[in-house]
Amino acid sequence: MSVIEAIRSNHARLTDIRRDLHAHPELAYAEHRTAELVATHLEALGLEVHRGVGRTGVVGVVRAGTGMRAIGLRADMDALPMQERNTFSHQSRHAGCMHACGHDGHTTMLLAAADVLARGEGFDGTVYLIFQPAEEGEAGAQAMIDDGLFERFPMESVFGMHNWPGMPEGHFAVHSGPAMASADRYDITVMGYGAHAAMPHLGKDPVVAAAALVQALQTITSRTLDPLDAAVVSTTLFHAGEAYNVIPDRAQLSGTVRAFLPEVRDTVEARLRQICAGIAATHGVSVDIEYRHGYPATINTASEAACCAEVAAGLVGSDKVQTDARPSMGAEDFAFFLQHKPGCYVWIGNGAGEGGCMLHNPNYDFNDDIIPVGGAYWVELVKRLLPA
Fold first, then answer.
1. Domain range for residue 284?
2. Is 1 a residue whose pLDDT tops 90?
3. Nearest residue to 129 (alpha-carbon basis) of 53, 58, 35
4. Which pTM value belongs to this model?
5. d(Cα 285, Cα 128) in Å, to the nearest integer?
6. Phi and psi torsions of 74, nearest 5°
7. Binding-site residues for Mn(2+), please?
8. Within this chain, do residues 253 and 172 fall inside the same structural domain, yes or no?
9. Would you say residue 241 has pLDDT above 90?
């Protein structure tokens, strides 16, 4: 029996696990029920289990043979602070909390792989099953690293996988190089001098200065960067004033910066600060900037990406593996792992994404039919990297 057939024989049970996780979503660093479900499942397989890694993370250890090599496989566990609109039986039972990104499915696919790997057949070495908390904006990967992940569980490389709506079910996309962008945030306060709206000459209008700033920031990507260097600068919040006839004394802007290359990320930040200084001087106001670095870009290493593409092609056929897919401007904290270890983060097709079944959408749901494919991919990757 092939690996994928073995997992399919347990598909009903795995689907029940995935839907149970979907019905009981938990936010970043609150994945207590989820973590315990994972740990109990792994212990039932006879595996060594470590709880509380990075606060609520779980690491399972699978050993086979006498090999000294080791790799890590990662799945994320947390949900999003969203209200679900689905009405199926496994809809979220927690108001304002939803698995809208498929982490319930990612967790289940790695558990499916654990079922097979626990037999200790077909590989020689150690596999660390990393069930990570707090991917959604709270840097759970970094928390696990800070808690000694790579010292406690020494691995030579690390791998991740995310479902991708809009890609055909069970297909794969593997990027050599950037797969996801970095994600930074900025908060800008423009401080002027308030006045009566009928007498603007008596004040220094921060609204006009802030409006000019919103426009000027768009020139970073259009006039500062090389057109072939992708980046996004989006001002998404603009707050000022409380009355129709009052020019306020301040305006506040917030937004996000995305980039694939570290040098482009640095250029955008530097130019943003220069523009703020210029607008301040032009309008006679002061500008305060708080620029916060978030997740770095997720950059796959070439040899690991090539290996993952070959494994996926061996599983589903080369015609179902994209190696030229465009990377996403979305961000992913798996990037922190890749700053320490070589590895690769792949996408697995979740289906057409019809009816709002897109990531971070209140009508999203993970496609249970891809659980066997995703689980088998993990097992075949282990067999390829840790051959018996």
1. 182-292
2. no
3. 58
4. 0.96
5. 55
6. -120, 135
7. 101, 103, 136, 162, 360
8. no
9. yes
